[in-house]
Amino acid sequence: MHDTPITMPQIGAVLNMLSIVGTFLFAASGALAAARLRQTIVTFAFFALVTGVGGGTVRDLLIGAPVFWVVDPAPALTCLNAALIVWLTPRRWWSDRALDWLDALGLAAFAVFGAAKAMAFGVHPFVAAMMGVVTGCVGGIIRDLLAGEPSILLRPELYVTAAAVSAGLFAALRVLGVDLPVAAIVAALSGFALRAIAIWRGWGLPGYQRE
After folding, report:
1. pLDDT tens across 77-102, in order?
2. CB atoms within 10 A of CB 78
3. Global pTM value
4. Which residues lie below 8 Å from residue 48, measured CB to CB, with a gap of 6+?
5. What are the residue ranges spanned by the domains of the chain?
């Protein structure tokens, strides 16, 4: 007896574009982390791959979907292209904040796409929003651990919060009946705006102060 294959629901052109953009930007941020460590091209490629597909892999495993980069080689190729671009360009082309800005763009795009994909597979909107956060954050967490840097989870800056804004707003707008492309664009821009302001102004959440 054969299992019924799981098919990928139609997501839409805007969300597919967000997935591609998010994959490339996160992969580039992973390659930049390798560049800061002056690693080899192999390490560049590995950092780019695990950063670009890490969050989406965990999401797909949790929602019972085919792992996206296993069934379609395009995301993995996108990651390798991002690594090659960073490897071939001079270090002076990348500012010290380049990783933060690439990460901010990728975070917003991935959070929205992750929530949308989870909803397309019948996941409750509230849980789908959490899947969006997983999609947006796990790749960066893996990157930081590999690079020996403090995980973003242990820093007070608005990172997970920005992903939650993008994913949660998208899910809420879809529940309210807003068209998918409009909901995706509004949610992604909102999450990116919050993350951008946090980077620019140094905003962060207060830490635990109880004695």
Report:
1. 999 999 999 999 887 777 767 777 87
2. 25
3. 0.84
4. 27, 28, 30, 31, 34, 79, 80, 82, 83, 86
5. 13-199
Residues 184 and 15 sit within 8 Å (Cβ to Cβ): yes
Amino acid symbol at 192:
F
Q: Which of 150, 147, 154 is nearest to 33 (CA)?
A: 147
For residues 59 and 131, the answer to whether their CB atoms sit within 8 Å is yes
Tokens at residue 32, please?
Answer: 């930049």
The DSSP result for the chain, as a single string, is: -PPPPPPPPP--HHHHHHHHHHHHHHHHHHHHHHHHTT--HHHHHHHHHHHHHHHHHHHHHHHTPPPHHHH-SHHHHHHHHHHHHHHHS-GGGS-TTHHHHHHHHHHHHHHHHHHHHHHHTT--HHHHHHHHHHHHHHHHHHHHHHHTPPPGGGS-BSSHHHHHHHHHHHHHHHHTT--HHHHHHHHHHHHHHHHHHHHHHT-BPPPP---
Q: Look up residue 93 and give its two tokens.
A: 């082309």
**Two tokens, residue 43:** 């390490």
